[in-house]
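Kindly go through the entry underneath: sequence plus fold tokens. Please state briefly how this chain folds according to its tokens.
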Amino acid sequence: MSIAKKIAHKAEAVKGSSKKAAGRGTGSRLQAEGRGDQIKGNIKQAGAKIKDAFKH
């Protein structure tokens, strides 16, 4: 897995956590959207780790 993709996956998870925090503060739907983005980013990171483990 390229370093650029790893960074992109981490950035997606961070974006999700910040959206979730903003939604929590404002009480809007951003909290649910942020949670979804965060989970998606974390799953992509886990998939990349599994790929790398079998690659070596």
